[in-house]
UniProtKB/TrEMBL annotation:
UniProt similarity note: Belongs to the peroxiredoxin family. Prx6 subfamily.
Every Thioredoxin domain range: 28-192
Any one of the GO CC terms: cytosol
Pfam family, one: 1-cysPrx_C
InterPro entries xrefs: AhpC/TSA, Peroxiredoxin, Peroxiredoxin_AhpC-typ, Peroxiredoxin_C, PRX_1cys, Thioredoxin-like_sf, Thioredoxin_domain
Domain of life: Eukaryota
GO terms for biological process, alphabetical: cell redox homeostasis; cellular response to stress; hydrogen peroxide catabolic process; response to oxidative stress
Any GO molecular function: thioredoxin peroxidase activity
Keyword annotations of the record: Antioxidant, Oxidoreductase, Peroxidase, Redox-active center
Membrane-spanning residues: none
Protein name: Peroxiredoxin 1
Amino acid sequence: MYLLCARKPITRSSVRFLTFDAAKQPRIRIGSTAPNFVAPSTVGDLDFYKYLGNSWGVLFSHPADFTPVCATELGEFASLKSEFDTRNVKLIGLSADDLTKHVNWVKDIQDISLGGKKFNFPILSDTKKEVAFLYDMVTEEAFRNINKGPIATIRSLFIIDPTKKVRLVMTYPPSVGRNTHEVLRVIDSLQTGDKLGVVTGVNWKKGDDVIIPPSLSDEAAKEKFGNFKKVKPYLRYASTKK
C-alpha cells in the first residue's frame, strides 16, 4: 500500500486512501508543489522528498514493463546518469507493474543498453496507479478501465527543483520515445536562468548566448553583463562566457 500526501509531512494521521475521482485529482502544473509519496521501488520503500533531498529530480513514468519504447528510454537515462549527477539531478522511473517484473525487466535493460553494467536508479512500482493519479498522469476514463491492461497515458515526465516545485511537464504518446538530451538541455536552461536571472531562446544549449529579460533596463543589463547585442528593444542577447 502507498502512503500518499500532497503537501504535508508523511505521518499516520496524513495517510489517505485515494478514490479515483477526477474532481479530487490534483492538478499538476508548472509551479505546483510536487506531491510527496512513499511507494515501493527497486531499492525498497521510497519517500520521494527524502530521496530528492536538496537535489533536482526527474520523475518519468511508463504504463507497463517489457515495453520496447520504455526499455530504450530507461536504458538511455541510465547510461546518461553521470550527466544528471553533474547537474545535481536525481532520476526516478515509474512503471505500473509489480516489483518482480521490474527486477527481470532491469536485467533486460542492462543487456540492451548498458552492456551488462548495473542499472543505477530506482524504478517505482505503481500497480494501483496511485502515484499516477497523484501526478495527474491518467484520465478519469482510464481509471474506469484500470484493471483491463496497460494505461497508455502513463507517459509523463516531470522536472522538479530543490524547493519541490514542478518546473516542466511533458507527456508523450506511447509510440514516441523521449529525447533524453532535451531533458538535459531544459535542466541546463532552468539552472542557468535561476542563477543569472535570464531566459534562453530556441534551440539554446549550454554555452550559447542568453536572452536578457525585458524587465531589465539597458543600463542595468550593461552593468550586469557588460556589452550585449540588441536586436530589438525586447530582444537582447548576452554572453555567459567570461
